[in-house]
Specification:
CATH architecture of the largest domain: 2-Layer Sandwich
Number of strands: 32
CATH superfamily of the largest domain: Histidine kinase-like ATPase, C-terminal domain
Helix content: 25-40%
CATH topology of the largest domain: Heat Shock Protein 90
Shape: elongated
Strand order of the largest sheet: 18-16-15-19-14-13-20-21
Length: about 700
């Protein structure tokens, strides 16, 4: 309602038409663009206008554009405030804008002006709009000019309201005099240049940004949920622009960087007042951004602050010119908006496809606690990152194979003498695998050590790499009260790790669920249904290889004379690994040497000789040398670099070699013929894919 005085001086009330105009504005621009926060009487109405940069708070003074009433209707139109007693207003944090609605011959046009300079003026003021501008906007969508008072008037299609508001929000800094216009980055300016040489892995560099987002949310959770509702979820979105010049952005909807924290946030090594969270060294954002890129910027809007701020870093320019202060770009934003967006440009090393895949996998592991409990939604290059844990072994104890199956997972809790508290769980994988086994070590909910294929597997607990514990044992352990490295990828153990491992080993193998004992000795019974598909494919592939190429090779082998055994030592080759073992067999002492070579040669080489000169304890010495080539075509096609891939083939080779020696001792003179034929078949037909 609008209060109007009659000539008698008595006030009366008449219905204001401005709420109708407000509805008309929302209808023209679209409810997806304009939200009415407070309708009031339309002078002003408090709106939230969604722009590409985010929501912006607007104090909208809306009126209808009509005739001028002063004989110039052939070239201009006007709208005005209701009376001299209703000056333009701008509540703190809201941009005052004059908005006129003009409709002619079915065309709808908005004429608008930044009204900051008119705020609070008591006299009645009209806004005159050039008719040519309105007509041009109706045809072309936009027209703009400056009036005699040097005010910028824009006329445009209603769907371009968000563009006008976004542009208007970037007010000159003199109108934001309550906010500092520069931020100091000293001391430590020279430090920025050396941050690119930090010993980061890419996933731990990106983790610095995510750490800040999570901590910002946790520190302000109550205020954010009060503003956005209890269903609010923290979202961190990392985008990669795969254009000619790769660019990266990291954006969150956390609480933003407050005005009070602004000076500290951009100075190197400025410790936060509270170091009990994920952001503890005052270096994370700066070090990660400088490690990844030459130029980077931060744009942020803090919850409850009507001003958004942006700072840009050009590291080479800062160091070259010894710049100690950076300009702060400022713009009015809705006080309810809250975000931080970090943009990285001029990357030191553009991310390759394989690296991007590894970053995704590692980040999913690093933040599994926060994504699992619903605190965080993390997206990297368009993919929502989640962690899928291994399936836990459900089986009887190996000492009682006919007993009831149990779940091989137990809680772990103990405390070190220095006060460090360890909690979490340990378990056995249903299917053994080197990748993903081992412990993941956490602090404050964030993984520090043991991500993906870098599981924490100390030999004191897991034994040698060929033990089954390396493939089956896994878990999550949370350490409270211990320091970490400045890149947050390792613990500062001092002298505590030995005690930690001793206690961990004891807890793992404690009854009634001895995990280490079960890991080493349990063997899963083969289920035909589980292997039928793979067995069928393997059989089909091998049969096809035989069908296509085996006959010529067999024909050549048939023509070859029998092979004589090699009774003298093998020649020298480059060996990757070598081990000798002594065994007593009947009336002989056998010395068996196992060798893996990186030279290209036969898959299996063997020599064996009986040395009477090297007798031990009155027994003849049998010297057996078994050599397997890792560079053989068969190994390159079907083996790999992991112990679980190499060891089965090495054991098969040893079995063939010792079988040959035993056959020779039993009177089979040409037992070596089988090995020669085997090497030929493996190097030709059977080393080729189907």
């Amino acid at each position: 309602m609008e209060c109007v005085k009659l000539p008698s001086g008595k006030p009366t009330m008449r219905k204001s038409r401005r709420p109708e105009l407000l509805d008309q504005l929302v209808g023209w621009a679209g409810p997806e663009v304009v939200t009415v926060l407070e309708g009031r009487d339309g002078w002003p109405s408090l709106l939230e206008v969604r722009t590409p940069s985010g929501p912006i708070a607007v104090a909208a003074h809306v009126a209808r554009i009509g005739l001028t009433g002063r004989g110039r209707d052939h070239r201009e139109r006007r709208f005005q405030n209701p009376s001299s007693r209703t000056p333009l207003q701008a509540p703190e944090g809201y941009i005052p804008i004059l908005i006129g609605l003009w409709e002619s011959n079915g065309s709808k046009v908005i004429a608008a002006m930044d009204a900051m300079r008119r705020v609070g003026t008591p006299t009645r003021q009209s806004l005159f709009v050039a008719l040519e501008a309105l007509e041009t906007a109706a045809k072309q969508g936009w027209a703009e000019y400056q009036n005699r008072s040097k005010e910028q008037i824009a006329a445009f299609h209603p769907k371009k309201l968000s563009h006008f508001v976004e542009r208007t929000s970037r007010m000159p800094k003199k109108q934001l005099n309550r906010v500092p216009v520069q931020v100091e980055i000293r001391p430590g300016v020279s430090m920025l240049a050396v941050l690119q040489h930090l010993n980061y892995k890419p996933w731990f560099a990106f983790a610095e940004f995510v750490d800040n987002s999570i901590q910002s949310f946790l520190d302000n959770r109550e205020a954010i949920e009060s503003s956005d509702g209890p269903g609010f979820k923290l979202r961190v979105v990392i985008k990669i622009d795969h254009g000619k010049q790769q660019r990266i952005s990291i954006e969150d909807n956390a609480a933003g960087i407050s005005l009070e924290d602004f000076p500290r946030a951009f100075r190197a090594a400025e410790l936060p007042p509270d170091r009990d969270g994920l952001s503890e060294f005052g270096m994370g954002m700066k070090s990660a951004a400088c490690w990844l890129s030459r130029r980077w910027s931060v744009r942020t809007s803090a919850l409850g602050d009507p001003v958004a701020r942006a700072v840009s870093f050009d590291i080479e320019q800062i160091v070259k010119d010894s710049i100690e202060q950076l300009d702060v770009e400022q713009a009015y934003f809705a006080p309810s908006s809250h975000f931080t967006k970090i943009s990285l440009d001029g990357l030191h090393k553009p991310l390759k496809t394989k690296t991007i895949s590894k970053i995704k996998e590692h980040l999913a592991h690093i933040y599994r606690v926060f994504t699992r409990d619903g605190t965080l939604e993390l997206t990297f290059d368009g993919q929502n990152l989640t962690y899928t844990p291994p399936q836990v072994l459900n089986a009887p104890y190996h000492r009682t194979p006919d007993g009831e199956p149990v779940s091989w997972k137990k809680d772990i809790t103990f405390k070190l003498k220095n006060g460090v508290r360890v909690t979490g769980f340990a378990a056995l994988r249903a299917k053994g695998a080197t990748r993903g086994a081992g412990f993941a070590l956490f602090r404050r909910g964030r993984l520090i050590q043991g991500s993906v294929d870098e599981g924490y597997r100390p030999s004191q607990v897991f034994g040698s790499p060929n033990r089954f514990a390396h493939q089956r044992l896994f878990g999550e352990l949370h350490l409270d009260g211990i320091e970490v490295t400045h890149t947050k990828d390792g613990f500062q153990w001092a002298d505590a790790e030995e005690e930690f491992l001793k206690l961990l080993e004891a807890h793992l193998d404690a009854q009634p669920l001895p995990l280490l004992d079960q890991a080493q000795n349990y063997r899963m019974r083969l289920r035909i249904d589980d292997v039928a598909k793979g067995a069928g494919a393997a059989t089909a592939n091998t049969a096809e290889v035989i069908r296509q190429a085996i006959l010529p090779v067999l024909e050549e082998l048939r023509k070859a004379p029998p092979a004589e055994p090699r009774l003298e030592p093998l020649g020298e080759r480059r060996h990757v690994a070598q081990r000798t073992v002594d065994v007593e067999f009947r009336d002989q002492h056998w010395r068996i040497t196992l060798e893996l070579t990186s030279d290209s040669c036969d898959w299996l080489e063997l020599s064996h000789e009986l040395l009477h000169t090297g007798m031990r304890r009155g027994k003849a010495l049998r010297d057996v040398h078994v050599r397997v080539s890792l560079r053989h075509p068969f190994m390159e096609q079907f083996s790999g670099y992991d112990v679980t891939q190499i060891e089965p083939l090495l054991r098969l080779a040893v079995a063939l070699a010792l079988a040959e020696v035993s056959a020779y001792d039993s009177g089979v003179k040409f037992a070596s013929t089988i090995r020669r034929n085997l090497n030929e078949l493996l190097s030709t037909v059977l080393s080729k894919p189907a």
